[in-house]
């Protein structure tokens, strides 16, 4: 990483607010002193943990796969409410930044699968907890079986090149207590990583899997919400509750489906399309943003949404929104990484990166407003 940092002395000339913005755009840590943030940015721009600068230019590795297709599986962790999305992305041969084309083009990532599931079908939360208490704790073997079959199914169905897994925290909301269910999800997360790492190493000649990435949900949320505008044209406050943050991300996804110019994905046929339909039905019924858009006649409720029985069980939307936004954020981070690397080689890298930050601020508003 020292070699990377030596080539980016200009980072130290950016203001603290600019460093913060760049860190958010790259998906790396953005709090702490300027030195801490600069170190985080340099680490993110480093080609590998070893800091091998020969791999700094990603084009050397992608040229062997011109116009290859990436299959990304993004997982929002849970036991009763695990959600995942599969995106197919066309990658250009020159740089990764072609993965997520400009808004308004037709060459968008294709959402092939989008699903929320219970990894133990038939178990309710209460029943599972009661069974656990009678048995003196959860059964690791049962969780291991569920993890193995879930991963095996994902690998067979989607042949992923990249798997993104939401990183769990043992404490939520700053509380000192650790909920038993939180521990279970964390253990299940570890099992997914262990199984994937094992299969990747044992079947390296049989799978396309290139990377298993753990992603902080806080960084994903910050990327989509910090400093952006709500669909109601209101500024998202710097401090919002967890519930408000969840609803804001749901609104971002729903609005992107409605507005062709800000659409972030193309919806595939079959299961993904069915999930989008039910997602929008519940959004129309529950979101204040949807009601405001309808009042201003900016959109109309679809016939299917209008006639959906109120008694019909609807899915949780925040889990579905989280797994999709996690994948899209990760793609944008890779795009930004390549653009920053290119800007760092300009005659005046400081000026180039300042212009880049202005462009990034504008493009994010296009996606969220």
TrEMBL record:
GO terms for molecular function: crossed form four-way junction DNA binding; DNA endonuclease activity; flap-structured DNA binding; Y-form DNA binding. It holds the Pfam family Ydc2-catalyt. It comes from the Eukaryota. GO terms for cellular component: mitochondrion. Residues 72-337 form the Mitochondrial resolvase Ydc2 catalytic domain. PROSITE patterns: PROKAR_LIPOPROTEIN. Gene3D superfamilies: Ribonuclease H-like superfamily/Ribonuclease H. Residues 302-313 have a biased composition (Polar residues). Residues 294-313 are annotated as: Disordered. InterPro entries: Mrs1/Cce1, RNaseH-like_sf, RNaseH_sf, Ydc2_cat. Signal peptide: none annotated. This is Mitochondrial resolvase Ydc2 catalytic domain-containing protein.
């Amino acid at each position: 990483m020292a070699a990377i940092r030596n080539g980016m002395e200009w980072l130290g000339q950016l203001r603290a607010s600019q460093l913060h913005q760049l860190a958010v755009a790259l998906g790396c840590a953005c709090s702490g002193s300027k030195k801490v943030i600069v170190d985080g940015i340099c680490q993110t721009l480093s080609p590998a943990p070893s800091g091998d600068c020969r791999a700094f230019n990603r084009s050397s590795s992608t040229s062997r796969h011109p116009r290859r297709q990436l299959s990304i599986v993004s997982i929002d962790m849970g036991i009763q409410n695990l959600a995942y999305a599969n995106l197919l992305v066309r990658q250009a041969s020159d740089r990764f930044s072609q993965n997520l084309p400009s808004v308004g083009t037709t060459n968008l990532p294709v959402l092939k699968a989008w699903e929320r599931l219970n990894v133990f079908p038939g178990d309710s939360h209460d029943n599972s907890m009661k069974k656990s208490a009678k048995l003196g704790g959860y059964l690791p073997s049962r969780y291991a079986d569920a993890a193995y079959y879930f991963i095996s199914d994902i690998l067979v169905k989607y042949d992923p090149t990249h798997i993104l897994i939401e990183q769990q925290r043992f404490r939520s909301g700053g509380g000192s207590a650790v909920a038993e269910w939180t521990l279970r999800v964390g253990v299940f997360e570890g099992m997914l990583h262990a199984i994937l790492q094992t299969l990747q190493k044992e079947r390296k000649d049989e799978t396309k899997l290139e990377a298993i990435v753990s992603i902080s949900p806080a960084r994903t949320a910050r990327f989509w919400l910090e400093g952006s505008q709500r669909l109601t044209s209101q500024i998202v406050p710097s401090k919002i509750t967890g519930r408000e943050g969840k609803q804001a991300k749901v609104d971002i996804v729903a609005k992107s489906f409605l507005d062709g110019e800000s659409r972030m994905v193309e919806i595939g046929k079959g299961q993904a399309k069915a999930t989008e339909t039910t997602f929008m039905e519940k959004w129309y019924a529950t979101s204040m943003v949807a009601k405001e858009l309808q009042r201003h006649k900016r959109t109309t409720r679809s016939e299917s949404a209008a006639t959906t029985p109120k008694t019909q069980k609807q899915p949780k939307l925040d889990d579905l929104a989280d797994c999709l936004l996690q994948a899209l954020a990760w793609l944008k981070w890779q795009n930004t990484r390549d653009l920053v690397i290119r800007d760092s080689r300009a005659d005046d890298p400081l000026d180039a990166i300042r212009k880049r930050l202005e462009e990034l601020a504008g493009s994010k508003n296009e996606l969220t407003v």
